[in-house]
Design brief:
single chain, 155 residues, alpha+beta, three-stranded antiparallel β-sheet, globular, repressor, NrdR-like_N, ATP-binding, metal-binding, RNR_NrdR-like
């Protein structure tokens, strides 16, 4: 695995252990060239997913991108980072089990919102407000009234 700091390809695994309730293997890596340390995750990938974007373009599904947008929505929320990893894995598993290789970005957005709505209302609203376009604002109220969060938000 190439070092993300200096580009050296010869990095060493210092520690490997199960993560996310044995869904992933977490490896701590060390680069002898620059002394950099970083972490990689090994996960099962059932299917190579392709995202159909609203503008008609296709691009390879990127788990890191999905995770980033969820972490942004979850910022400063009282949620264990490990829980977020599990959530992302759950979403990816759902996408893979749709049985299609091509998945629309809209479908992904809906699954993410559904998942967030069950876990954290504030994160859900943050994500939804970014994700949804103005045309869908009417539906947004309905979404909100249908929410049954497990914990009450502080905001
Ligand atoms: Zn390095």
């Amino acid at each position: 695995m190439r070092c993300p700091f200096c580009g050296n390809v010869d990095t060493q695994v210092k520690d490997s252990r199960p993560a996310e309730d044995h869904v992933a293997i977490r490896r701590r890596r060390f680069c002898a060239a620059c002394g950099g340390r970083f972490t990689t995750y090994e996960r099962v990938q059932l299917r190579d997913l392709v995202v159909l974007k609203a503008n008609g373009r296709r691009e390879d599904f990127d788990r890191a991108k999905l995770e980033r947008s969820i972490r942004i929505a979850m910022q400063k929320r009282p949620i264990d980072p490990e829980r977020i990893d599990q959530m992302v894995s759950g979403i990816v598993r759902r996408l893979e089990s749709l049985g299609e290789t091509d998945i629309s970005s809209r479908q992904i957005g809906e699954i993410v919102m559904e998942t967030l709505a069950r876990i954290d209302t504030v994160a859900y609203v943050r994500f939804a407000s970014v994700y949804m376009n103005f045309q869908a604002v009417g539906d947004f109220d309905r979404f909100m009234s249908e929410l049954r969060p497990q914990e009450s938000p502080e905001v």
